[in-house]
Design brief:
The protein has 7 helices and 6 strands, in the order βαβαβαβααβαβα. It is globular, with a radius of gyration of 18 Å. A 6-stranded parallel β-sheet has the order 1-2-3-4-5-6, with helices on one face.
């Protein structure tokens, strides 16, 4: 099986307010001209390849114009993926959608100020499959209020429904809400190890 290179385009998780507690201050949006140059470099050096958009929001039409018909996969926050957006991405050549689900536990999603809930993700998975696209999810073990059991439950739910999973353990980024909580001396999450039964807590100001 031939390996397929990926030309990565980072859109950011929460480029505009309201932002979740995981996100550091946003970087400038990618320039379509720079994206076109990236695609051209990959076209010359690494065929076959695809583009990976990593959001946050779905890629704009200007960015999709810049990749000039190259197949792409888009990571999208579930609360930003409407049916209309999904149809637009499919029509523009998407071969897969990666939902930035984080977890299927609603309490943890509330704790980090994400605006989707597990029910929405499960419905979106079916909608993506119905459109003939590959579907994957991002899972983030180590969220506030989660545990080893939560991570195992998330893995079982995903394994039965999606074609690929990206495991992205929680990182405390400088400038994020979790970073502020860390500086205030709060335990950010329950250890994913079953040997550590310490409960998590978040600051009232987080």
């Amino acid at each position: 099986m031939t390996a397929v290179a990926v030309a990565p385009v980072v859109l950011g998780c929460c480029p505009v307010a309201p932002r979740c507690l995981l996100c550091a201050p946003p970087r400038p949006a990618p320039d379509p001209g720079a994206v076109a140059a990236l695609v051209e470099r990959h076209r010359q050096a690494e065929p076959p390849f695809r583009v990976g958009f990593y959001g946050g929001p779905a890629p704009s039409d200007a960015l999709l114009d810049a990749i000039d018909g190259v197949p792409f996969v888009a990571r999208v926050r579930p609360d930003l993926l409407t049916r209309a957006e999904l149809d637009r991405l499919a029509a523009r050549g998407a071969i897969g959608i990666e939902l930035d689900a984080l977890t299927f536990g609603d309490a943890a999603l509330v704790a980090v100020r994400r605006h989707h809930r597990a029910k929405v993700v499960l419905e979106q998975i079916e909608g993506i499959r119905d459109r003939g696209l590959r579907v994957g999810v991002v899972l983030a073990p180590g969220l506030p209020g989660t545990s080893h059991a939560t991570a195992v439950d998330d893995a079982h739910i995903a394994a039965a429904r999606v074609q690929f999973v990206r495991i992205h353990p929680v990182l405390v980024l400088d400038g994020s809400g979790l970073h502020r909580a860390h500086l205030e001396g709060c335990l950010l999450y329950t250890s994913p190890s079953p040997r550590d039964r310490t409960r998590s807590r978040m600051p009232s100001s987080a």
